[in-house]
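Quick illustration, no need to memorize.
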Amino acid sequence: MNDTDRVVDRTPWRIAVAQALAICGVAAAVAVGVNWTELRTGNFVPLESSLERVGIEVSSLLKEYGRGRAVVIDTRSRADYEHGHIAGAIHFDLAQFPRQMNQLSRWLPRQQHLVVVGIDHPLQRFSYQKMWHSLGYSQVSFLDGTIEQWSNVDGPVVSGWDMGPLLEAGR
C-alpha cells in the first residue's frame, strides 16, 4: 500500500466518524454545562453550581413580580407578545440579541433578577443564561409555565405593543 492508497482509504468514512465523535464531545460538554475555557484548562464546574437559578414557577414569579424584584423578558414572537404578555414585560427578539442587549444594558441594572419567558428547551436555557451571565446578570431565571398559567393565578396580562418602541428607539 502506497501513500496515495492511505489517503483514499481515510476518506470518507473515517472523516465522518471523526466528525461524529467531535459532535458527541460538544454535545456532552454542553449537557454537563462546561465552559470552553474551563474545558481547555480542565477546571470545569457543573451547570447547577456555576450559575444561579434556572427555572421559576409561576407562583414564585408572582411573588417576586408583586414585590418589584423581577424584570420579565419575553422572547416569544412579536405576534404572541401582542396577543398577551405579562404586564411590563420587555419584548426581546433573540435574533437581535447583541443589539438589543446593548440597548437594555444601558438602563437595566446588573443586579436585577431577570425572568425570561419563551425559552423552554434546557440547552437553550443554558446557552442564554450563560450569555446573560457573561454580561453581568447573575440572577437569570426562565419561567416554568405559560402566560395562560400566569393569568390563571391572577397575574396581570396585557395585550398590544407597549414595550416595543422602547427597544426600537435605538435603531
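The first strand starts at residue 55 and ends at 57.
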